[in-house]
Amino acid sequence: MDSSSYVLIVDDQHSDLRLLESILKGHGFRPLSLTDPTKVLAQCRAQPPLLILLDISMPELDGFEVCTQLKADHLLADIPVLFLTSMRDMSDRLRGFKAGGADFLTKPYEPSELIARVSTHIKLRKTQLELARRNQELKEKISDLECAHAALLESQARTNAVLNNAGICIGVLDINCRYEKVNGMYARIFGYSEEEFQGMRLWDILRPDYAEQSQAAAERLRSGQQEQHYADKVFVRKNGSQFPGGHWLSPQRDSDGGCRGFVCVISDLTEQKEAEHKLRLAHTVFETSSEGMLITDEDNRIVMVNPAFTAITGWRSEEVIGRTPFFQNSNRHSREFYRQMWDTLLTNDRWQGELWNCRRNGEVYPLWLSISVIRGQDGGIVNHVALFSDISERKKAEEILRYQAMHDPLTKLPNRAMFDERLRGALARARRKQSLVALLYLDLDNFKTVNDTLGHAAGDRLLQLVAETMQSCLRVEDMAARIGGDEFCAILEDICSVSHAAGIAERIITSLGALDCSPDGYGLRTSIGIAVYPHHGEDAEHLLRCADKAMYTAKRLGKGRCCLAAGE
Fold it and tell me: Which residues are annotated as catalytic?
């Protein structure tokens, strides 16, 4: 491993080291890591790196002290040091620059920013090394004027080639920050020709409010108070348009240490700033959304949840990070349900549907869930993103609407719609089991008298009493329904005989007859028609007509009685 191929990372936190190694390797860099800051000097002397990523907060020796030692060694002083820190205090940054640091990277790391800064510093370092090498060659050949002149011309040509072929803006300035030379990229980005830059000053391409800042930085570099300056600034092109850019300014010193000019490097941060804006926007949506959100890794382990997740489920972020979402399982879904869900997700990269999960307090609740798969460039799964909303209130509203649609509002009994549905189901079960189903059709014989004598309120109360009485005469598995006016029906499943149905009908007639329906104490007379599947009909419509006819037969025979449908 030589100085042209590795970056030295110094951090006592193994997790941070692994993260930085992974990011750098993923972009073609070769990192070397140290956890002991006392070994940095020896490592750099043995194998000088292109760049040092140096953590500030370390035991025994902090980053500032390590950097100071490096800069005190003239063989190592030119190696750029990027401090790694979670500190944002400006005094800490000033201390870092005074120690000789070139730049700062703030934890947690934004990979695109990390690579942009590392790449730029490495390119600048390589340029400096190249210039130093050429200068050394010139010194070695100074005894021979012709060779020295040829070497100088060659060095200048190669330097120009490096400058012009670099993918970043590189400019050479004199002691007063006037441009002496710029590379092609510099000219293209700003819209000036290389000749037009001659004599322009650095702050001529800066937005005016940044001029004073740059002048002060140049003065600190000239006086040796600072070895390098970096800042994000806003630059102005020849046509007046503006763009955000990263600005590096490094002094060029002679053999006595005096400043003889500067190297200025500028990178266009437009795409980076746009990406940062999108990230901030995505973060805002993530944090403020009323929908619960969770993100899992390729192994489906949770890496992030939003506040709405906690509000809905009761689980805090620190309680769920690293776990799979299955801990919320309500046990209401089969293994086959989850197998089909994952098959669809892996096939279509998306699944959505209704699910029942369990909150932290044990409450089971319904949710509408949407899961998306995020894949990397190689097609492999990188993340799963799940969005969900609590639909408890919607489900309750649906249940209320369904209840209202299927029940009589006065008696609370099932209405005609639910009765028809239940009857068809009962007949389907009876066909499979070859069992009997009885249908009782009930009509109140003297209900009009009650309404006319006592009023409709009393009539309504009487209908409620009829409903209660009918239910008390039926088994739990039987169903009573009000199908209209003073007409009621009952479905009796799995009866043992026709006489069983007749016995229940007689019980209803007797119980209703015992009701005290008027101040005069007359009883409530009821006529009931009975039809039995399969004797009187094979389908619901036929069976209902038979029971209805039997009820009218009971009325003709004197009311207050039950009558079996014809054919039995």
Answer: 486
